[in-house]
Automatic annotation (TrEMBL):
Protein's name in the database: Beta-lactamase class A
Pfam families on file: Beta-lactamase2
Gene3D superfamilies xrefs: DD-peptidase/beta-lactamase superfamily
Protein's organism: Anaerocolumna aminovalerica
Beta-lactamase class A catalytic domain ranges (all copies): 22-241
A GO molecular function held by the record: beta-lactamase activity
Highest taxon in the source lineage: Bacteria
One GO biological process term: response to antibiotic
């Protein structure tokens, strides 16, 4: 009897999915899953990962400082995720705090403040210089004016987390600082939706936290994306799940892209644990 491969199991899981999923997984042991990894997807909020990378690159070069102060003004007010829109104009925060809000609660106002601080050209130059050649930030976030925020591929998004995981993005210290920010990310609706919660919750169980995820997701009408690093007792792996071409634009926890993405994530997770640090 022949073995059913991991890719075949994933494709069987997606047989009734009406969208297109891009899947990239790297276990750092020479094994990868690569499905639609060079197709272009709308970034939605995953572009904020590249913006954070640009910030730390500019800090490393001496052009910017994490202690610089930014002020929330009406100019950057925008609908969508985050907490700054609930605060008064004139609130002053350090660049690091704005960048942290941009990642951990996907703050759209904080993102626009960071784009103004860094500049779109600088952000796009960072992407090109680090080899994310199919990734581009097109505009600031403004849903009344623009229907496109950014473009990327599962391969590019996987690569930036691979570099962070190996402490090769900008510098070891910058990579470690960015990892700590991604570990605090609040929206893991796809990657961890089907994980056993016991492994993720050291506060309630009283046990050491066995699993952590350092990630950044993103959703717009045209896409549902997630990706990052999953750390286990056997090691770490990078996983990217991007979705497009589905028919339902509404946002809710049981959206088909989220449900099927979480099933794929659990397949990968179980395989990695069963093989003690490998996916094949």
């Amino acid at each position: 009897m022949r073995e059913i491969t991991l890719e075949e199991r994933i494709k069987a899981e997606l047989a009734s999915y009406n969208g297109t999923m891009g899947i990239y997984v790297n276990d750092f042991q020479g094994n990868k899953v690569e499905i639609n990894i060079d197709k272009e997807f709308e970034t939605a909020s995953t572009v904020k990962t590249y913006i954070l990378g640009t910030l730390f690159d500019e800090v490393e070069k001496g052009n910017k400082n994490l202690s610089d102060k930014l002020i929330y003004t009406q100019e950057n007010e925008i609908e969508g995720s985050g907490i700054l829109r609930s605060l008064d104009y004139g609130v002053e925060l350090t660049v690091k705090n704005v960048a942290t809000l941009m990642i951990i609660v996907s703050d759209n106002i904080g993102t626009n403040m960071m784009i103004d601080y860094l500049g779109i050209d600088t952000i796009n130059a960072f992407m090109q210089s680090y080899g994310f050649t199919h990734t581009k930030l097109h505009n600031k976030i403004n849903f009344d004016i623009y229907d496109k925020l950014g473009t990327t591929t599962p391969r590019d998004y996987g690569k930036i987390f691979e570099m962070i995981c190996k402490e090769e993005l900008i510098s070891p210290e910058a990579s470690r600082q960015m990892l700590e920010i991604f570990k605090k990310q609040h929206y893991n609706s796809m990657l961890t939706k089907s994980f056993p919660q016991y492994f993720l919750d050291s506060e309630d169980t009283g046990e050491d936290e066995l699993i952590y995820v350092a990630s950044k997701s993103g959703s717009m009408d045209a896409c549902r994306n997630d990706g990052g690093i999953v750390s286990t007792p056997y090691g770490k792996y990078v996983i990217v799940l991007f979705n497009k071409n589905f028919t339902d634009p509404i946002y809710y926890p049981e959206h088909q892209a989220t449900v099927f993405g979480s099933k794929v994530s659990r397949l990968i997770f179980d395989q990695y644990l069963a093989l003690k640090g490998r996916i094949k």
